[in-house]
Amino acid sequence: MTDYVHITVESNRISLECAQEAIFVVCLDHEHANPTPPENSSCLQNHEEELARRAKHLLIGGGSRANGMNRWYDATIQLIVSRNGTNGLCIEHSTAEGIVSINMAESALRYERENRKQRQMGEAEKEIHARPLSWDVNPEAVMLLEKQKATMNELTDELDLKVLIFNDFGRDFIKTHQFSPDGFVQLALQLAHFKLHGYVVCTYETASLRRYRTGRVDNIRANTMEALEWVRAMTGESSEETKLTLVRKAADKQAKVTEEIQGGYGIDNHLYALYVLAKQSLESGTIPELPVFFRDFMWNELMRFPLSTSQVFYTNFCGEQVKKKKKNNGISRSPHRLTFLTAFSAMVLLFVMDTAVRIIFRMTP
Predict the structure, then answer these.
(1) pTM for the model
(2) Which of 25, 71, 152, 271 has the fewest CB atoms in 10 Å of its CB?
(3) 344 within domain boundaries
(4) Is 193 a catalytic residue?
(5) Are strands 77-82 and 25-29 parallel, antiparallel or unpaired?
(6) Neighbours of 330 (CB within 10 A)
(7) Is the Cβ–Cβ distance between 222 and 254 less than 8 Å?
(8) Are residues 326 and 199 in the same domain?
(9) Domain region containing 25
């Protein structure tokens, strides 16, 4: 827990400790105007845009000009409820992985659905009286807050969040061709990036290590040599047979990488731990400089993830993390459709789905 004994104003210290110790935070947002859909837009497009707008609202609340100041991002769980019906969770991952909070939310929603007709009223064990938190803010703090509000608005304006619902096929159809749906989408993303930029790119995808004591996560990488060989074939003059052979090879490699990482044989945690230890040794004067491995250009490239992705297994899929200057994607797979929530541009989404269609129909008998 954060120690606030250094704060001289007693009311500020008490308020900060109260916020810090809260199990979760409830954010009651004011309603804000919904944008009017274009006249020539489809029902699906309107639905996608509405989902994106709601997800963006949950994440940042429209900046300081709307509901963005009605957030406490240090809290592990923020339950956000708006007057217009938008509601959901905003999760901070430091305390626990997102899967823990999402499983809790899924259980609560399932319990509500299963017991909706009972209409039982519970009684609290003790009466709780809400009270405002008191703050004493000096002029210097006001200036700092105004500066942070400007920074928040800048980040809000930079966020480009899109939802794409792909109904042509989903998880089941991909599996009928002996493909992992996750590996399938990862390869599609690599090909989309290659078509846009001319190279494959480091990808971060969370692999849970919760099966191990104190385990958190490691990283599943998708920019393998097999993937590179395949994307080159897809954008070149190779035969259809060659492309199909190479995509199978790339998919098999991706499946093997995933199995290795989930088995505890990943490289990212191990290498980053060595890097942190080396930095600590450098700061303490134990070593004169970082080992050459950590000073090499390739180390920086290895730990730079322009593509940060996550697969979503949950029925109440809503959002995904967003980081500045990164292309982030949440992919929800249902039996008959794929749903993308992404900070990609619309052009990248089109490339991804074009890639998906080309792959799957080349495998279709």
Answers:
(1) 0.80
(2) 271
(3) yes
(4) no
(5) parallel
(6) 22
(7) yes
(8) yes
(9) 1-32+40-109
